[in-house]
Write a structure and sequence with these properties.
The protein is of the alpha+beta class. About 35% of the residues lie in helices and about 20% in strands. The strands form 2 sheets. It has a 7-stranded mixed β-sheet with strand order 2-1-5-4-3-8-9. Strands 6-7 form a two-stranded antiparallel ribbon.
């Protein structure tokens, strides 16, 4: 990846992190960066209207996040490490939450709509290591870009041809049953700590 493009993507990520830092939210950075694990105590302007489709091809909007606690994150099915690791960590977190974990729904929004069709998401999320019932969302490029915008997530295609990959924000967003943002979680916070943060948020309501 050319150095100039690395700097541009890093600058974009930094801009998002600085915006969320106003309420002590940290957006995780690159592979080798030291990643702070400070959790939000406020409610920044994260989340909002979007229109996508789920892995069954049915329309899905932000309204369907209401009524349940949700863990929302951005990724893609061709992701070699972070995305499957994040899903596996969430599965372990749900297990540690016990009965409270049943109140959680997990939502993966693909930032690679060219490859991540509803069927591709359905096949990917059938992995038994991932949380049962995880919702995979995709759409047009414009729809995905809008969903990322309202969550203050950034992503970038890297490379050309068949073997391109995607850089993207690694934050997991905890949304309350009212559809409003509660906390941002680092993808590698660990199941025990993640469960603790979620349980505290649930206790606060």
């Amino acid at each position: 990846m050319p150095r100039g493009r690395i700097f541009l993507f890093a600058a974009a990520c930094l801009g998002v992190a600085l915006a969320l830092a106003l309420v002590t939210v940290i957006v995780v950075g690159g592979r080798d960066a030291a990643e702070p694990r400070v959790i939000s105590t406020g409610q920044p302007d994260v989340g909002g209207p979007f229109q996508l489709v789920d892995q069954t091809g049915q329309p899905f909007t932000e309204a369907k996040l209401e009524g349940r606690w949700s863990l929302v994150f951005f990724g893609f099915t061709y992701c070699p490490d972070y995305c499957p690791a994040t899903l596996a960590a969430i599965e372990a977190t749900v297990d540690r939450l016990g009965p409270a974990g049943e109140a959680l729904q997990v939502v993966l929004i693909s930032i690679d709509p060219a490859r991540d069709t509803p069927q591709a998401l359905s096949d990917y999320l059938s992995n038994e290591a991932f949380p049962a019932g995880t919702i995979g969302l995709t759409g047009t490029e414009a729809q995905v870009a809008e969903a990322a915008r309202v969550y203050r997530a950034v992503y970038e295609k890297v490379g050309e041809g068949e073997y391109y990959t995607m850089n993207h924000t690694l934050t997991i967003y905890l949304m309350g049953p009212d559809g409003q943002f509660r906390s941002a979680l680092a993808h590698d916070l660990g199941p025990d700590r993640m469960a603790e943060v979620i349980r505290r948020a649930m206790d606060r309501g």
